[in-house]
Amino acid sequence: MKPSAFAYRRPASLQEALSLLEQGDDVKIIAGGQSLVPAMNLRMATPGVLVDLAGIESLSALNVEDDGSLSAGAMVAHNRFLRDAQVGAGWPAIPLAVKHVAHEQVRNRGTIGGSLCHADPAAEWAAVCLLLDAEMKLAGRLGARVLPAGEFIKGVYETALEPGEVLCQVRFPAPLRGWRWGFHEIARRRGDFAMAGALAGLAIDDSGLISAARLVVFAAEDRARRLDAALVGVVGCKPDEIDPDLAGLAAAAEVDPRSDLHASAALRFHLVHSCVVRALVEAAGKPAGVRND
């Protein structure tokens, strides 16, 4: 199938892109296009004008800043995070999850900004950003603003972007030392959208005890959600002493799973439990890429 007719614009600057967005309600941003183009081919989206951000050099930057944080332009492709040695060493939870994004060809073209703005509940990026306390920098004609990850995605395909705004950068805080990470998602086939997934993090102190824990569950509800309280029982334990099954039940009890064509709410309850258990087992037994020096 082919999309309906549209005009194509490729601005060279963010200000030019923002000006184009003011030209009408049928103007649509395209980043990697891995979600938008299929929707256009099915006539589920029929924009009159496409504004391609690929020509804006600043949006493709991936840098470790002077304060130790990681800044990623909205146009950074998924696979760049997997191939960047600094990302793997300082933020190992990112490649742990992002390698599960769709397939190799999609990861070559799809972008972090496109995924976050599409706001699919099954997308891995929203879960990663929640887990690592990322911040989103938004730009509009009236200036820029910054939102924490938990305030950016509002629901299924719904974000906090105002008309005329663009997500231009995602910032991850400096590496968390002494943390171990685990990830698990369940999909019908490798590369399909997850029916449920979990990301877990355990902070190990100098005495070998868990001093803090983080948990994000995604794909089960309308958006990813932090469920750190479900892991309160593991704090103060040694990693090999935790009860992942109990934590999985606590997390599943906190979710209000949705039903759709892929899975019923009842099935998702069990999938959440399984994903949390497996993510915790991995976090407890696999050291992170950054050591606690």
TrEMBL record:
FAD-binding PCMH-type domain span: 1-177
UniProt keyword NAD present: no
Domain of life: Bacteria
Keywords: FAD, Flavoprotein, Oxidoreductase
Signal peptide boundaries: none
A Pfam entry, by short name: CO_deh_flav_C
GO MF, one example: FAD binding
Name of this protein: Molybdopterin dehydrogenase
Organism annotation: Candidimonas nitroreducens
